[in-house]
Amino acid sequence: xxxxxxxxxxxxESTFSQDQLTEFESGFRGRVLYGDQHGYDQAxxxxxxIFDKKPAVVIRCVGTSDVVxxxxxxxxxxxxxxVKGGGHNSAGTGACDHGVMIDLSLMRSxxxxxxxxxxxxxxxxxxxxxxFETQLYGLAVSGxxxxxxxxxxxxxxxxxxxxxxxxxMTVDNLVxxxxxxANGKVVTASADENPDLFWAVRGxxxxxxxxxxxxxxxxxxxxxxxxxLIVKRFEDARQYLQFHRDYVRGLPDxxxxxxxxxxxxxxxxxxxxxxxxxxxxxxxxxxxxxxEGEKLLEPIRKTAPSHGEWVAMNPWTAxxxxxxxxxxxxxxxxxxxxxxxxxxxxxxxxxxxFAEKFPTEECEIFIPHLEGAQSRIPEDATAYAxxxxxxxxxxHTRWRYAEDDERCLxxxxxxxxxxxxxxxxxxxxxxxxxxxxxxxxxxxxAVWDRLVKIKSKWDPENLFRMNQNIKPAAKS
Length: 476
Description:
The chain is built from 14 helices and 20 strands. By secondary structure, the protein is α+β, with helices and mostly antiparallel strands. The longest helix has 14 residues, at 64-77.
């Protein structure tokens, strides 16, 4: 007879007989996979190759009823569980060893209401799914820059993207969410229904339940935008970064201009002798008329020489997937991040110093300019509260082999420490596994206290803990 042992939330184990497993499986429309079954290894994989976690069981849900049944199972038996949507975060929280993986990745439907300019999106959908469906009507949902990012994790943490300065973050465009709570109930979170839960899921991560459907407002952007890359010499990095930090803060909301420092990939518009060299990449997207966008680019072009550029009216779906190959699944990744008070000269010095000693050619330093519409929303309107910081620094360390772990991790942690004095908080979606104290830095104290109260109401046993965890208040 087959039995299965699953880890519990208190660190113990529960063993299930064949009869119990058969009864459990019978209620699912999706698939229930164990370690010896075809499809298990593929289902358990997540984006970050550092993690090779092996759940005791993977529940591949195809609808909300499957999610409800899975939540009831883990609650009734107090089982350790994780929730996988896109599985695309640095912390690897979509999988757990010896527990239950609730896999939403088969739930990818997107339905667009063209008249109301809204979209209903399943909890396992990827950003590319949303882009392709909304673009049929010249619409887009704000947030994200990689098409294989999961919409669920992106939204629950905040959601930065090319449209944020004009239309706000992903959380700012969330109309409602269907949530399976820890007690197995299906509730709607919106401004009118369960507003406390609605506030919390807009930035508080997956701490409060499993979102099976999101409803978003869409932005009418058309199907093409002026976008592209202007690649500067690394030798001029200090001069260009000093110019950039001042220039972009005066740009209209229609323009987003972000910095990436890395080794140049073999882009066809770059000379062959530049491939593999350190470069400063200015990536931009403009939502207004092409001629006006070209004028805004001229100062960028004129400040310091460029290796080359690629500037065009690009289809939105092509632009949104244009960076996918640089962050494909399977490599080892570790991110550390800061919300920056400013891109000061001292911060620029540290950026350049650590860029000069990248541990691998796949590492990059990512500095988006924020502000715009997303900064004008009241800081207490959503759980995402770091509205006023003008820049974000993400130190993206990426490598292939375990023997390089130590030097890569040393580099990113030293870099992070060297830039801490310039920081004001951290973006929760850019956290790796850094501990509870670091999670708290993603939220101002008053926001954290409010999140703890809401967690205590909706998930008092901390059933949903494989995330950037907000623990419920201790019971008196």
